[in-house]
Amino acid sequence: MNRFQTEILVQGQPALAEALVLTxxxxxxxxxxxxxxxxxxxxxxxxxxxxxxxxxxxxxxIGSSSAAAVLLELVSAGLAxxxxxxxxxxxxxxxxxxxxxxxxxxxxxAVKLDRREFTxxxxxxxxxxxxxxxxxx
Amino acid sequence: MALELTAEQRAIANGARGEGAAMALRIVAATxxxxxxxxxxxxxxxxxxxxxxxxxxxxxxxxxLVEGGARVAVRATLNVxxxxxxxxxxxxxxxxxRGMARRxxxxxxxxxxxxxxxxxxxxxxxxxxxxxxxAWGESNAVVFCNSVFGARTNRYGDFLDIACxxxxxxxxxxxxxxxxxxxxxxxxxxxxxxxxxxxxAAWPILGSLYGRExxxxxxxxxxxxxxxxxxxxxxxxxxxxxxxxxxxxxxAGVTPEAPxxxxxxxxxxxxxxxxxxxxxxxxxxxxxxxxxxxxSIHAVAIGSPHLSGAEFDRLERLIAGRRLHVPLYxxxxxxxxxxLESSGKRLILEQSGVIIVADTCVVVTPILPDIDNAxxxxxxxxxxxxxxxxxxxxxxxxxxxxxxxxxxxxHPVFGATE
Lengths: 137, 418
What we know:
The complex is a heterodimer.
Chain A: E1 3-5, E2 7-10, E3 15-21, H1 28-31, E4 55-58, H2 67-76, E5 83-86, H3 91-102, E6 109-112, E7 125-128, E8 133-136
Parallel strand pairs in A: 3-4, 4-5, 5-6
Antiparallel strand pairs in A: 1-8, 2-6, 3-7, 7-8
Helix pairs in contact in A: 2-3
Chain B: H1 7-13, H2 19-34, E1 40-42, E2 45-48, H3 56-67, E3 75-78, H4 95-110, E4 135-136, H5 139-149, H6 160-167, E5 169-171, E6 185-188, H7 194-197, H8 202-214, E7 219-222, H9 230-243, E8 249-251, H10 261-264, E9 272-275, H11 278-287, E10 299-307, H12 309-319, E11 328-332, H13 334-343, H14 345-352, E12 354-358, E13 375-378, H15 381-391, E14 394-397, H16 400-409
Parallel strand pairs in B: 2-3, 2-4, 6-7, 6-9, 7-8, 10-11, 10-13, 11-12, 13-14
Antiparallel strand pairs in B: 1-5
Helix pairs in contact in B: 1-2, 2-3, 2-6, 3-4, 5-9, 8-9, 8-11, 9-15
């Protein structure tokens, strides 16, 4: 069983869920539909796939400064990912989780892991504990 | 490095200025920890991009700050909202969305923000001093503030912009540190045709190319002989920020941190030199259009960033009293609208078929009619970037003169000049 110790970026709920490894960077504003939780960017290779309830592995984020607003909307609508794994911290996106906590929502955890490790996560079920340990099930 | 808060900052976080200010300071501090900032620094002003409606949660956030008694601690101008409160234009938002968007705009005013409702606050009297630290949102405003004024800001996204304005502090990292403002890449346009460089269309095309080539790095443009004017730098920055993630650029001999190339580079060697060619410009121009082969257009949109008074003067000269065949949406702020009304130009433009859009713009809220396979012509690199995804319209890029001639005939017309 593969285990990866990650760095916790934003504390949140532990997770047990299927990994969704995005193969291209995404802009949450315009790229994820906050009403459905699905990837809305028609140019994205995983267009149409739902990020809800998945361990969302992001190789990079691009674009608008309104990404946090979309993530907050997903959390408050119960459509958020189960956890978010990022290659590098992105303040613009993760503010959505920080604000969601201030608004009293239970939020997914965000952790940092080198994107070269993402190949070991594709299509696997992952457990993430409160200390940021990711275990492939 | 652990974040160190001053006694005053800790007191605010613990409620000394009320629960709203405490929440704001906690958000600023959490972001600082996330980005590895060692401290928070006082800010001189803020520009707030958070009052655009994306869903009910954003409205509830702003109202929670209001309920907590929060007020901005520094001057804070507002970016566009989702509604045109001046009544110049109409949009197609559903009643629930319209109501929540209105509540959101009201909440930000109650927090003490100025109702400027513009993405060009720098042309509405908000012009921070060289070297001052500020917290600005909206990518084109950020890049203008950093590059043209030499004030210091990171790209402050939704929630963090208002949190900084209420707290009066921002995380000390990124472009607030002078060493991170050094140009590492030289973008040399000296090989381009002088006539092209002197044209209005040059700047959005150059900006899009610059953004794609440079991403989020800091670069310096060389080979510009004369100051191109504020509206040209505005168009360049907006296109660069939407095509890449540019937050700061320099133009040697033009912008304040680049009196010359060596100073912009902090007297070090550049990591990369990009020699811009005519072929690269042609490619960049083509990429701005997604509907280049369309034989007719359904609308023209200009004003991203919002039009200045000088740009309205050009628009009026180009239309020259003619009647437009398709609507021309001219997006602007109240600062420019007030002058148009007092001079009587608003009426003249509207009689020609111009639809003035104030407080908002056509890519952030549904103003354009819902038409299948519709085509929009624009002179804005930013509209060209966002219109296909946000409005469903295909895009044709042209200069303002070409946009006006096309609006008069209803067909794309190229080669028009002033």
